[in-house]
Structures are given as C-alpha cells and as structure tokens.
C-alpha cells in the first residue's frame, strides 16, 4: 500500500509570506480532495526548501511523493533545475518513488481566471499612485541579482534557437 505525499514546489521569494496563496491551495487540496499529506516548498530564498520537505515526507512514511511545480512556464527550472534537484535528493531515499509532476502550464481555466482578474482590476488605482515599500526592506543577498536582463538583440538569437558562445560568436 502506498502512502502518498504531494509537494507543491514554488520559486521562492525574499518577501515573508509571499507563498501564502500556494499554502491555501495545499490546504484546500487536503480539505476538498482528501490528500492526507500536502506540503509546500520553494527552490530558493526563504524556504522551506525541497530537501527538507522531501525528507519530512519520507520520515512521515511516504512511499510515493508527487512534486507539482507551481510554475506556469516550461523554462529552465522545469526543464533542468527541478528534475536535477529531485534526482539528487531521490538518492537519499531509494524506497520512496519520487515523481516529477506536470507544471501548471496552460489550462483553459486560466483564461477564466485571468478574465476575472481583469474585471477585478478595472477599479484599481493608477500605478503612479501606489506607495511602494523601501527597496532596502527586501535586500538582495550578496552576489545575487533580482533580474537578469538580456538585450533584445541577444534574446532574438536565443528565440531563433541559436546558441551564443562566451566570445559572442553564434553556433548552430
């Protein structure tokens, strides 16, 4: 008999409480569908992180863990980072089947959700009138950056499927 655990895996944030909506989804999965063990974790920043949550599930007796990446797009995290991280951690618990589930991706229900958000946003204030928190409230750890910009001409090369070597030369 398998003892199943579900892990919702998000990106992570420097902002405390940023993952509250994902935690609500986990709680509702337990309540609405009866999954006994649903946990949330994050790839980076404040955590909890995948390794500790996976270990928690294994220690609680899970023999099968399904990881649902809480991501819309199939970028590098979905294609490489998450499965690699999962493979590295799976070695520690050979008796636990670890499944890399599907990310959120596209679903027709998202169209309805986005339309709902459009309607809700129509009464919102202009962005110029928003009071923003001070930038120092959420500091970036040393050696890291918030965004990795790519000039449009460089991005265009990647969109065409070309790879750019460190010297700036194209290679097909």
Folded structure, characterized:
The chain has 172 residues and is α/β, with parallel strands linked by helices. Helices cover 35% and strands 15% of the residues. It is built from five helices and six strands, in the order βαβαβαβααββ. Strands 2-1-3-4 form a four-stranded parallel beta sheet, with helices on both faces. Strands 5-6 form a two-stranded antiparallel ribbon.
Strand content: 15-25%
- Judged by helices, strands and strand pairing, the structural class is alpha/beta
Helix and strand string, N-terminal first? EHEHEHEHHEE
Main sheet properties: 4 strands, parallel
Strand order of the largest sheet: 2-1-3-4
Average pLDDT metric: 90
- Give the termini separation: 50 Å
Count of DSSP H/I helices: 5
Percentage of helical residues? Answer: 25-40%
Please state the overall shape, judged from the principal axes of the Cα atoms.
globular
Tell me the radius of gyration: 20 Å
How many β strands by DSSP? 6
Low-pLDDT stretches are 164-172
